[in-house]
Amino acid sequence: MAIVAAIALGVALLRPTPRQTPGSADPVTAPLPSPAAGFQAPEPVRLVDVAASSGVDFVHESGARGGKLLPECLSGGVGIADLDGDALPDLIFTQGQPLEADASNDPAAAQGGVRVYLNRTTPGGALAFMPLDRAAIPTLNSFANGLAIGDVDGDERSDLYLACVGQDRLLLNRVGASGALEFVEAALPQDSAWGSSAGMFDADLDGDLDVVVANYVQWSPAIDRAVNYTLDGIGRAYGAPTGFAGAALALLVNNAGVLTDASESSGVVLRNPVSNALAAKALGLAFVDADRDGRVDILVANDKTPKFLLRNLGASPDGAPRFADIAVETGFAFDRDGSATGAMGIDVAWPRNNEELAIAIGNFANEPSALYIRDRARPVFSDEALGQGFGAPTRRFLTFGTLFLDADLDGDEDIVQLNGHLEPEIARLQPSQTYAQRGQLFLNRGGASVPLFVEAPADAIGALGEPMVGRGLASGDLDGDGDLDLVAVDLGGRARVLRNECATNHHWLAVSIAGRVAVGAEVSVTTVQAGVSTMQRRVLSPTRSYQSQCEPIAHFGLGHATTIANLTVRLPSGELLEYSDLPVDRVMRIALPR
Q1: What is the number of other CB atoms lying within 10 angstroms of the CB of residue 483?
Q2: Tell me, what's the pLDDT at 18?
Q3: Using alpha carbons only, what angle is made at residue 419 by residues 367 and 354, rounded to the nearest 5 degrees?
Q4: Distance separating alpha carbons of residues 381 and 32, to the nearest angstrom
Q5: What DSSP string runs through 184-242?
Q6: d(CA 559, CA 444)
Q7: Is 38 helix (H, G, I), strand (E, B) or coil?
Q8: Of the candidates 63, 60, 67, the residue with the CA atom closest to the CA atom of residue 92
Q9: What is the C-alpha to C-alpha distance for residues 307 and 329, in angstroms, rounded to an integer?
Q10: Of 394, 410, 248, 24, nearest in space to 402 by CA
Q11: Are 462 and 500 in contact (CB under 8 A)?
C-alpha cells in the first residue's frame, strides 16, 4: 500500500497543470483595435455637390407609376466625354420614361433617351455646364439604361450607343449647319432585349471600335406581372431576377461604321451547361487583359448567376473575334462561399502598384462587396475583400456604382461605392435597410498595408456621405485641376456633380491618347521618391462602374514626386510607346497615327 501511495503521489506531482483558456478565470487580452478605429480621413477627400451652381439640372426619370415594373428600379447611367472637341469633358445622362404610360396624360411619356450638358468652364473659373438644346438630339421614345461612348464611324468625334429596354439606339456625333453639335440616329440590328450596360473596344483588332452590350433578363410587362414578386406576400415589389429567364450578351462588330451582330459566332452567348438556358443576367461591364496574354478580355457582373470572364482568343483566320468563358476555372465566377452574388457595379485596378490585378464588384444588400485579386504567376483570382478592409463595411449596403480612383492623389487607387436599395418599402420588413443610402469611400493605405483599405467616415467625405438612391457613377477631371471629380445618378432624383476639393498639394499626371485603337491600352508611370521606385498602371477604358462611362483619360496621383522617370503605353496591338523624364501637373496628349 505504501508503494501504491508513493506512485500516486508521484503522478500527481509530475502531471502538468492544465492551462486556462479565454473564458476561464484568467483575464482575456483585449482584441487589437480595428485599423479603422480613430481613423480620420484627410480633409482633401471631401466632395462637394455643385450640380445646381454649375448648371446641371438633370432629374432622372425612373418611369415608376405604381406598377412596380422591374426596369424602373435599375436604370440611371452617366458618361463623361468630350463631345464637341474643346478638350473639356461634357456630361451625358441616360433617361427613362414610363413603361406603360398614356402619352396624352403623362408629360414624361416617350421622352426617354439621353440628355447632354456641355462643359463651359473657363480657365480659373467656377465649374459651368450648359444643356444641349433638345432639338439637337433625336426624340427616341426609349427607356435608356447604360451607354457606351466612342468613335464608331471614324470621324474623330465621340458617338453614343444607348442600351435600352427593347431596341438599342446609336447616335452619331455631327456638326450641324450652324456649326453646333448635333446627333443623328444610325441603324442597328433589330433587338428586343433589355440592355443594361454597354461598352466599346476593338474586339477583332481591325482598327475600329466594336460594341458589347450587357443584357439583363427576358422581360415584358406581362412576364413581370406573372413573376409577381412581393416582399410579404401582399402587393407587388421590386426584387431579385430569379423568376426571370436569362439573356444573352451581345457583340456588335464594326464594319466601316456599320454594326453587325456577331454574338453567337464570337462565343459571348453563354448557356447553362445543364439546362441550356441563356446564362447572362448582366448588369456591369469592364474590359482589361485579365489573363495577361496581351489581348483585352471582357468582364461581366451578373445578377445572381455566375460572373463571366470572357477570354479573348484572338481573331479567327477570317478575322472574326473569338471568346471563351474562363470564370469558373479562374475563381471569378463565384464568391468565397461558392455562391453567385447579386453583382452590379464593376471596376479593375492594380491597387498595390504591383502585378496583382484587382477586380472590385458591388453586390446586393447583405452580401459584402468583392475584391478579387489575381495571383501574380497565373490567372487565378481569390476574393480578399474581407481581409483587406473592403468586405464587412459594405455588407449592409446595396451597391451599384463602383469605381477605383486616386481620390487624394497620393499614388495609389482608392474605391468609391454608390449605394441605394431597389424597394422603397424595404425598411418595413428589414429595419436595418433603407431605400436611400450613403455612398462610401475606401482609402488605400499603401501596397504593403494589411488591410489595404480603410473606410473614410461618412462625415468626412462631404456630399458623397449623404443618402441617395445611387445608380450610375462616373469619374473625370471636370474642372481641370488635376484631381478626379464624380458624377452620380440618383434614381428618380437630381443628379449630383461632386467636385473633389483636393488640397494635398500632391502632383498628378493625366494621359490622353487620341485614336480608336487606344481603347484597352495599358499606361504605366514610374516615379522615384527618396530612392524608392513606384510603378502605377491604368487601363485606358471608359467602360466601368454601373451603366456608366468615365472620362477616357488615364489619371495618376503622384504624391510628392516632381518628375516622371518613365511612361510606357502598351497598345492592344502589342505596340509599345515609351517616354522618360516628363514634367508633372499636366495633361499629356499622345496622338496615334490613323
Answers
A1: 24
A2: 45
A3: 70
A4: 29
A5: EEE-------BEEEEEEE-TT-SSS-EEEEEE-B---HHHHHHH---SSSSS-----GG
A6: 13
A7: coil
A8: 60
A9: 12
A10: 394
A11: no
The pairing of strands 485-490 and 563-570 is unpaired
Q: Number of helices (H) and strands (E), helices first, in the chain?
A: 6, 37
Residues 6+ apart with CB under 8 A from 524: 535, 536, 537, 566, 567, 568, 569, 570
Helix (H, G, I), strand (E, B) or coil at 263: helix
Distance CA 90, CA 77 (A): 14
- With beta carbons less than 8 A apart as the criterion, state whether 217 and 246 touch: yes
**Residue 482 and residue 583 in contact, taking contact as beta carbons nearer than 8 Å:** no
Q: Tens digit of pLDDT for each residue in 119-157?
A: 999 998 999 999 999 999 999 999 999 999 999 999 999
Mapping DSSP to helix (H, G, I), strand (E, B) and coil, where does residue 373 land?
Answer: strand
Strand partners, 442: 415, 455
DSSP 470-508: EEEEEEE-SSSSSSPEEEEEETTSB-EEEEE---S--EE
User: What's the rounded Cα separation, in Å, for the pair 151 and 172?
Assistant: 9
Provide the 8-state DSSP code for 33.
P
173-219 pLDDT, tens digit per residue, is 999 888 899 999 999 999 999 999 999 999 999 999 999 999 999 99
Task: Give the CA diameter of the chain.
Answer: 119
Residue 52's SS3 state is helix
Q: Which tens digits make up the pLDDT trace of 409-423?
A: 999 999 999 999 999
Neighbouring CB atoms inside 10 A of 8's CB total 10
* N-to-C CA span, the chain: 105
Q: Is 348:359 a contact under the CB 8 Å cutoff? A: yes
C-alpha 412/C-alpha 335 separation (Å) is: 25
pLDDT tens readout for residues 250-305? 999 999 999 999 999 999 999 999 999 999 999 999 999 999 999 999 999 999 99
Closest alpha carbon to 546 in 158, 269, 286: 286
Integer Cα distance of 74 and 82 in angstroms: 26
Number of neighbouring beta carbons within 10 Å of residue 58: 24
Query: 374-421 pLDDT, tens per residue?
Result: 998 899 999 999 999 999 999 999 999 999 999 999 999 999 999 999
Q: Which residue type sits at 93?
A: F
CA distance 60 to 471: 11
Tell me the one-letter amino acid at 299.
L
As given in the structure block, the three cell numbers for residue 258 are 456599320
β-pair partners for 382: 373
Strands (E), 530-575: 532-540, 543-544, 548-549, 554-559, 563-570
The span from the CA of 51 to the CA of 264, in Å, is: 43
561 burial (CB, 10 Å; 0-12 / 13-18 / 19+) is: buried
Helix (H) or strand (E) segment spanning residue 252:
strand 250-255
CA distance linking residue 364 with residue 421, whole number of Å: 9
Which of 351, 332, 395 has its CA nearest to residue 369?
Answer: 395
